């Protein structure tokens, strides 16, 4: 499979038959295709992957075809925002997009030392798999397009000492709206969230019943996300939205509940229980158990016996 790397924004614009960027570290634009161009924009049957050495925010409607980001197939819906960080790779095959596609590309140096840089570090959607992309309502799409157009207008003006600050202000607003819309998307997807959390618990049950805790140790959040087929950050956000607790908290609570059953239902010692649950050191188990229950394992057994 061919892999195309865009080392800078100038290369990126040239590949799309766009003018050289006004600023080598930043570009914004809209591609409007005719019906003939739409039909001709289908890629070859061979998959092609792209890697950019800069950030990209795009708004496009994918009519058909496949776009794979990480290991996950892109979910093609109207008004889809796509966020990509430097050195991330995406793969396309037979892609057809609607007539209007907006994009912003900017180098890390363009935002260094700014509030936008701080925001990006906190926004998980730059690290999501694309089936977790942002799908906009028509009203939300109009808001985002308005900001794109405002940034483009400033970008096309004669550059002066105010240009960068104005662009960054609108870029910051774009990111904040995206964050708001993502949170709405999570709230609107409660059934999906519940299904993911149910699968999360099922995986833990299978892991425990197969004695993998004792053999391989406590599963990490990254391992759980891989089994679920989603990114670690997406899993974390979904479970936190659904339960109010992080994935790691849920794993620990599961271990504590299983520990209660083992401590009261078997003749296993506290140390044996700890090892069976994947703890390398019994004192770590005792510390977690007390943190979650308010009692040490010994105190819990004594309390249960008295009752």
Overview of this protein structure:
- Helices cover 53% and strands 18% of the residues.
- The strands form 2 sheets. Strands 1-3-8-5-6 form a 5-stranded mixed sheet.
- Helix 5 (138-156) runs antiparallel to helix 6, helix 7 (190-209) packs across helix 10 (232-243) and helix 9 packs across helix 10.
- It is built from 14 helices and 10 strands.
- Mean pLDDT is 83; it is low at 37-45.
- It has 2 domains: 2-188, Sandwich (Jelly Rolls); 191-306, Homeodomain-like (Arc Repressor Mutant, subunit A), CATH 1.10.10.
- It is of the alpha+beta class and 307 residues long.
Named CATH architecture of the largest domain = Sandwich
- Order of strands, main sheet, comes to 1-3-8-5-6
* Low-pLDDT regions: 37-45
The CATH superfamily of the largest domain is identified as Regulatory protein AraC
The CATH class of the largest domain is: Mainly Beta
Q: How many domains, as an integer? A: 2
What can be said about the biggest beta sheet?
A: 5 strands, mixed
Alpha carbon gyration radius = 25 Å
General form: elongated
Distance between the ends: 66 Å
